[in-house]
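Tip: read the tokens left to right.
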């Protein structure tokens, strides 16, 4: 599934396809964790917050527009509602 564009990936998650969620976590988990870990000293807390970020993103993905997901190369994509 990794050949999907970001638009296709978001659409897969919107449709509730588990493989879309898995792919999104695969693509972005390390970057999201790194961003959180720079701000939270406890690594267990950072891991939990990373999971929370994805759960929140998945639960609000229908209210997120694709234009808000676009980001410059090398930046972290972290959809918010």
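Filled-in amino acids:
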């Amino acid at each position: 599934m990794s050949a999907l564009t970001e638009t296709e990936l978001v659409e897969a998650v919107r449709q509730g396809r588990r493989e879309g969620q898995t792919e999104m976590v695969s693509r972005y988990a390390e970057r999201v964790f790194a961003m959180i870990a720079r701000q939270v000293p406890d690594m267990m807390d950072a891991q939990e917050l990373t999971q929370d970020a994805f759960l929140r993103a998945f639960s609000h993905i229908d209210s997120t527009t694709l234009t808000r997901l676009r980001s410059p190369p090398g930046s972290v994509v972290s959809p918010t509602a």
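The radius of gyration is 13 Å. The mean pLDDT is 84.
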